[in-house]
Each structure stands twice: as C-alpha cells, then as structure tokens.
Design goal:
The protein has 409 residues and is an alpha+beta fold. It folds into 3 domains: 21-75; 91-172, Orthogonal Bundle (DNA polymerase, domain 1), CATH 1.10.150.130; 187-337, hpI Integrase, Chain A. The protein has 14 helices and 9 strands. It has helices spanning 54-71, 91-109, 119-131, 136-155, 176-180, 186-195, 202-212, 216-221, 275-295, 317-330, 340-353, 358-365, 370-376, 383-404; strands at residues 21-24, 30-38, 44-51, 74-75, 227-228, 233-236, 239-246, 252-260, 269-272. Strands 1, 2, 3 and 4 form a 4-stranded mixed sheet that branches. A 3-stranded antiparallel sheet has the order 5-6-9, with no helix packed on it. A two-stranded antiparallel sheet has the order 7-8. The longest helix has 22 residues, at 383-404.
C-alpha cells in the first residue's frame, strides 16, 4: 500500500533578537515579553505586558521594543549600592540615609525596572511622603539620594536622562496641635517637676534639660570643667556622635558613641544658668562626691562627665531613654509620650510664651539661625500675647499724641 503523503507546512520564521514574542496563556489572555537589559549578575531582564486583545498587546510590545532600540539596554543597580557616596558625613547621618532608602525609596521603587520610573511616579512619591507628615529636610534628603543614584545611572549608561531635576517638593505644614505636643503643657510641667522630688538621678538631668535647652548629645557630653557653679555659667563645647559600621548590604552591624564637635558653630556657646539649675547641680555634685568617695572613684574631676554612669563612663542615648521610660511608668505618664527632646522644646516654649526675644532663645538653644527658632516655634503665640501687643500699640499711640499736644489743647 502506498505510503500516505504528508503536506509540509511552512514554519514561522524565528523572531530576531530583541523583537519580543507574543503568546496566549491558558486563561485566554495574550502576553508579550521583550528583553530590555541585564541585571548586575548578567541575567536577562525582561518586561511583560498582558491584555485581552492580541492587537493591543502587540502595539504595547512594539512601543517597548522601539524604546529599547532608541535607548539601548538597561541594567539594574548593583546590590552593593556602589552608587551611594558618603562624603563628609557622620556615620549616624549615613545610617539615617540608609534607613530612608530601605524604608521609603526601596519600598516605592525597589521592584520596578528603571524605564518604569518616570517623572510622574517620582512626583507622586514625594507628594505622598509629604502627606504623611515627613519633615521638609527628610524629603530633601530623599530627593538628594535619588538624584545621586540617577547621576550614577546616567554615567553607567543605565538610563539616558535624570528625571529627578523636574520634581517639585513641598512639605505640608505641621498643624498647630501637633506642634504643641512637642513641649509639655503648663499642667504637665507641674506634674513632672513635682514627680522629680523622688528621683535622685533624673531630677538633675531633666531640670538641666528643661532650663538650659541642651540637646541630648550635649548633655551626655557635658563635663564638670564646662560648669562653673560659682559664677553660674555653663559652656557647651562638645556633643556626641554615633559611630555605625555597615556590611556590604548596608545593614548596621556595630554601633558605638564618642565625643564630637557641636552640631553647628553657633552650638558652641556659653551662658548664665538659672538659679534652679545652679542649685540642682550643686546638690548633684555633692552627692557625686560622697558616692565617689565610698566607691573609690572620682566623679567630679574636670574631665569627668556630669551625668556619668556608676562606673564613671559616658552615658548613651539608650540609657537616657530607658531612664525616662521607667520614670514615665512609675509616675503615671505612660500615655503622655514625651521624650528627651520634649524638654528642649519645653525650654523654648516657656521663654517664647514669656515673650523673650527670639534671637536670645536661638542663641541659648544653639540654633544657627533665628529663622529656625521662629519656624519651629511659630505656634507659641497665645491670645494673651495678641492682647498685650494691642495694649502696647495703644500706649505708644497715646504717648505719641501726648507729645504732639503737651498742653492737651
């Protein structure tokens, strides 16, 4: 029996490199893929588009393919974060920037391919971060980080242009009720200061915080040579800095604390301390002398830290936070989540409520500019202040008119 002849069919020609492919999935939808570049380890990087209509998917594939032809292949940033530069930064600042990358930038863009990140997505990202209430400086840091990455990406020919320059950032102003929570209210001050009578260690710490406006790092670094109890003066010469070591993935693996210069040039300052601070520190020094004599340690030498540990070592942020947490628990302040910086804010608030000159407040706090003080504490203007201002203006007008017409005619 003659063999049955089989008709030969013409096989579809194999697509050329980078032309992409279209296929139909089991669920009936059409899917296309195209090679757009390579990852840092050499593995191919593909983009997929899907839809219900084959022609629409083909159109998207053609557009994507044309984009690759026009711009060339792309790669993804290496895991070692080679783009991240750390010039003139303290390790604590580096740690903050790495946290911004991990908790904000990578969350938003970490799973995207570079061509998918455009101006619109970047602008939406910064708008959303502002709505969350992030500080303007924090948002600026994130923009600087993304810009730093794109500078690297353009140099390595991963992308053609840097889109971050067109992004506009604007922080949403903090509401007054949130600003007010930065400082203790008058009622809270009364309760907190009353509770300090039974706190041998925390009393001098909190009194110093609340009536000098020191930063936590400045208080930790304060040495007895910087405190002149006889002349009631205090000099701020140092602060502390965190020293953080990172692994290749950018994770913190070790942390320590050491003395450093103050935050800004104007943070180095000398001022007269109020009587309450002088008296409190005098009592604290006497207690330290007695305790040191009993333990065979010198807690009051010039180089010793005013609020050192029982071993005579410099305290840490963690130990101060722990002391404050236990204090709040003992005295019923659990729901009132004030922290170490609350007392610095309270210092400024009390002075501005009493209508102290903002320039004086700025100098006492070590702000580099008085505008910083005015911006942070602009909410500290009560109705009483407005009323007093009105009375002052009326008095000025009355005196002016009296001088113009001294006889009253």
């Amino acid at each position: 029996m003659p063999r049955e002849l089989k008709l030969k069919t013409k096989q579809a020609a194999r697509r050329g490199n980078n032309e992409g492919s279209i296929y139909q999935r089991k669920d009936g939808r059409w899917c296309a893929q195209v090679l757009v570049g390579y990852q840092s380890d050499g593995k191919p990087l593909r983009r997929y588009v899907c839809g219900n209509i084959c022609a629409e998917v083909a159109r998207q594939l053609a557009a994507r393919t044309q984009e690759v032809f026009a711009n060339g292949y792309v790669t993804v940033a290496p895991k070692e974060h080679l783009w991240f530069r750390e010039p003139n930064m303290s390790s604590s600042t580096v740690g903050k920037l790495r946290n911004l990358m991990k908790n904000h930038i990578y969350v938003a863009f970490g799973k995207m391919e570079l061509p998918d990140v455009d101006l619109l997505k970047l602008q939406k990202f910064f708008n959303n971060e502002a709505k969350k209430g992030l500080a303007l400086q924090t948002i600026k840091h994130m923009k600087q980080l993304i810009n730093q990455f794109y500078v690297y990406a353009v140099k390595e020919q991963m992308v053609k242009v840097n889109p971050i320059g067109e992004v506009k950032i604007k922080a949403i102003e903090r509401r007054d009720d949130k600003r007010e929570k930065m400082a203790l209210t008058e009622e809270q001050r009364e309760r907190v200061f009353a509770a300090l009578d039974s706190e041998q260690l925390l009393k001098p710490i909190i009194i110093t915080f609340a009536f000098t406006g020191l930063r936590p790092g400045e208080l930790i670094a304060l040495q007895w040579k910087n405190v002149d109890l006889e002349n009631a003066t205090m000099s701020i010469r140092h602060s502390t800095q965190k020293n953080i070591e990172f692994d290749a993935e950018g994770n913190a693996i070790h942390q320590s604390i050491s003395l450093s210069n103050t935050k800004t040039l104007r943070s180095t300052r000398t001022f007269i301390i109020p009587e309450v601070v002088k008296q409190t520190l005098t009592e604290w020094r006497e207690r330290q002398e007695h305790m040191g004599a009993a333990l065979g340690l010198d807690y009051t030498s010039d180089e010793q830290f005013v609020f050192c540990t029982q071993k005579g070592e410099m305290r840490t942020y963690h130990s101060l936070r722990s002391l404050l947490t236990r204090f709040r628990s003992r005295h019923g302040f659990v729901k009132e989540k004030f922290n170490l910086y609350t007392f610095r804010h309270t210092f400024a608030t009390m002075l501005l409520e009493a209508r102290e000159n903002p320039e004086i407040v700025a100098r006492l706090m070590g702000h580099s500019k008085v505008t910083t003080t005015l911006l942070v504490y602009s909410h500290v203007v009560s109705q009483d202040v407005y009323e007093e201002t009105t009375k002052t203006l009326d008095t000025i007008y009355a005196e002016t008119m009296q001088n113009e017409n001294p006889t009253g005619r």
